[in-house]
Amino acid sequence: MQKEGKGTDLIFKAMADPNRRKVLDLLFSKNGQTLTQLCEKLDMQRQSATQHIEILIDANLVTAVWKGREKLHFLNPVPIYEVYERWVRKFEENRLGFLHEIKTQLEGESHGTI
Predict the structure, then answer these.
(1) Residue 9 CB neighbours (<10 A)
(2) What is the separation of C-alpha 45 from the centre of its chain, rounded to a whole number of angstroms?
(3) How confident is the model at residue 69 (pLDDT cuts 50, 70, 90)?
(4) 58, exposed or middle or buried, with CB in 10 Å at 0-12, 13-18, 19+?
(5) Based on the number of CB atoms within 10 Å of its own CB, is 40 exposed (0-12), middle (13-18) or buried (19 or more)?
(6) Which residues contact residue 42 at a Cβ distance below 8 angstroms, ignoring those fewer than 6 apart?
(7) How far is CA 101 from CA 19, 29, 83, 106, 114, in A?
(8) Tens digits of residue pLDDT in 80-113
(9) pLDDT band at 2 (very low <50, low <70, confident <90, very high)
(10) Single pTM value for the model
(11) How far apart are alpha carbons 4 and 28 in whole angstroms?
(12) Segment (H or E) for 75
């Protein structure tokens, strides 16, 4: 069993909020947005958006890069993939194996041929 860490807790906490998930969706659809661009699509004040983005940055889900005077925000999909690998994939494998067994039983010895 893999060791759980503070990073995983930060990722789950960050992704638990619907506003932060919306920020992730916005960055997925168009990576490299400024705070102003993100705020145009979020139903919140600039200060609230900044707080949400900081939580995403702390969880390593978003990175910020300065380009001249603009601070651009980019999605980092690696932690989400790690959560998938640790928490989702193993449950998918069992489900898919079970469905394969049912399919095999329903098809019988003929394996779907007539």
Answers:
(1) 11
(2) 24
(3) very high
(4) middle
(5) exposed
(6) 19, 22, 23, 26, 49
(7) 40, 38, 27, 9, 20
(8) 999 888 887 777 777 777 777 888 888 875 554 4
(9) very low
(10) 0.75
(11) 26
(12) strand 70-75
